[in-house]
């Protein structure tokens, strides 16, 4: 079974990379990532602006939200950049290279336009295998300058770095630009070796009793498994249009999520939140889930699935708007919990003798009730003509 992939010209043993975060702060963390089984490490980003190197405390919170019975979780954080300047960072790159044998990707985030190339050169000289440039960082220029949508900074920073270094340069993109596909294709044309899609979004959580934003009182990064769908959506349309290889980041929490990213067209994935919440070694659980998928599909080479879902991606004009569906309930399985009855806005469901009954005349075939039934009592199928 072969899980090898190529990303930004670098061969990796498998597609799970440790994303830039506190979990990749310095050489000891890079060693932890290699020991746990990651295929590469993106080191914590170094920030040009000194204040961004100091964390406020506390800075993490797991938010549980949603409608009762449909809860979701958000990993909310305001963690600042690498603790030092570019000289210390170069030392971190050097030590990480010395102490590990997996690829080490540096990560830089600058304020002044002329600094990007200098930082990239310092990382290259320190031995980094590639450099990720992070104009998408929500704490950086995007918030300070409301006239800036991140697009122009990303393209210029990439051009400057490409002119200055020989190692692969990988922009880490924001999902908070006007059109992700437009920015991705511009970055590709400007020479991006890889595209990391998409950095966490910036948000706010409010304490309704204190009447203020929680924790440090300002904006924070937020993510969760719910973030994955937007990542897949942009990758599936971007992958066929760019030469650069893609690393998916945002909401990847399981081996199955990695598979989805590859099917959409990414070569690799980068994970952070799940490493905080489940530990470094959780990467082994994810790899085992990928192995089981490969067995189930009799896949010899994982790379063979890259982009396959993209080929099955339909445009709006191609959707089947003709075939009608109807739901049916198996009374043997039904426990009479009424969840389905509550969600049917077409009044097609009623409970008879404690069991769900669906009126095929009223059923619109919308598909909601089978997805809320926890015991699998409802099946939906095409209506017979
Ligand atoms: C606590 C925390 C700190 C992060 N710090 C950085 C950073 O310094 N540079 C960066 O490019 N991304 C940073 N990220 C973003 C991650 O690298 C990753 O792309 C993002 O969290 C989406 O992946 P996830 O859903 O697996 O967390 C950070 C994420 C978290 C959760
Ligand atoms: S949700 Fe499922 S178990 Fe509950 S009443 Fe409907 S069919 Fe029965
Ligand atoms: S499929 Fe939709 S319309 Fe039909 S019974 Fe279920 S919820 Fe109602």
TrEMBL record:
Gene Ontology molecular function: any one: dihydropyrimidine dehydrogenase (NAD+) activity
SUPFAM superfamilies: 4Fe-4S ferredoxins, FMN-linked oxidoreductases
Known partners and oligomeric status: Heterotetramer of 2 PreA and 2 PreT subunits.
Keyword flag Nucleotidyltransferase: no
Protein's job: Involved in pyrimidine base degradation. Catalyzes physiologically the reduction of uracil to 5,6-dihydrouracil (DHU) by using NADH as a specific cosubstrate. It also catalyzes the reverse reaction and the reduction of thymine to 5,6-dihydrothymine (DHT).
Matches recorded under Pfam families: DHO_dh, Fer4_7
EC number of this enzyme: 1.3.1.1
GO cellular component: cytoplasm
Annotated protein name in UniProt: dihydrouracil dehydrogenase (NAD(+))
Domain 4Fe-4S ferredoxin-type, residue spans: 325-353, 354-383
Keyword Cell membrane: no
Catalyzed reactions: 5,6-dihydrothymine + NAD(+) = thymine + NADH + H(+); 5,6-dihydrouracil + NAD(+) = uracil + NADH + H(+)
Keywords: Oxidoreductase
Family annotation (InterPro entries): 4Fe4S_Fe-S-bd, Aldolase_TIM, Dihydroorotate_DH_cat
Family: Belongs to the dihydropyrimidine dehydrogenase family.
EC supergroup of this enzyme: oxidoreductase
